[in-house]
Design goal:
By secondary structure, the protein is mainly α. The chain is built from 10 helices and no strands.
Length: about 180
């Protein structure tokens, strides 16, 4: 949906101006591309960088950079849990922000050393390259606030894709209490 949104933003009709293959399981898209299916592929990391390192393709653009801050990761809870667990949720939010602060204050190599255990199949040099790419693309948020603009953007994307019947009110669904 985000790719289609970006294509439309650049005056391309995803139904008539390009041929999108959407019948390949996401786990298999990089293999299909390397095997000769398609002229372009949309990949998350580390797949995009591994395709480059294999000499099988190049990263030419960032869908995330082109789309704006799409809130891919948001933490959800019930109103009851929120009311009863404020200290826990505040601690969780502070922990996330400490991680964001660490990323903002350290080199890609230092970050790679810390996160490498989560990516056992990817070497640290490649992880550092990915971290640098994300930093250069301004992909890292510096705080935990779920901004209204991002909330509006995700609804724009969902609506444009025909997946949203009615917009949700930001003020009723999002709290920035712990970020503040």
């Amino acid at each position: 949906m985000v790719l289609e949104y970006v294509l439309k933003k650049h005056n391309l009709n995803p139904k008539t101006d390009v041929k999108l293959l959407q019948n390949i399981d996401f786990a298999n898209t990089s293999g299909a591309f390397v095997g000769g299916t398609g002229e372009y592929t949309v990949e998350f990391e580390p797949s995009a960088t591994l395709i480059e390192e294999q000499g099988a393709g190049y990263v030419v653009a960032s869908v995330g950079t082109e789309s704006g801050y799409v809130p891919y990761t948001a933490y959800s809870t019930t109103k009851e849990f929120l009311k009863e667990n404020k200290a826990l949720l505040e601690g969780f939010t502070r922990a996330i922000e400490r991680g964001q602060d660490y990323v903002a204050q350290h080199t890609p190599e230092e970050i790679a050393d810390i996160i490498a255990p989560q990516f056992k199949e990817t070497d640290k040099k490649t992880i550092a390259k990915i971290v640098k790419r994300y930093a250069d693309q301004d992909s890292f948020k510096t705080d935990t606030r779920f901004e209204k603009d991002s909330f509006t953007l995700i609804q724009d994307i969902l609506e444009e894709a025909g997946e949203l019947e009615k917009r949700a009110p930001y003020e009723e669904l999002v709290t920035t209490e712990f970020s503040e």
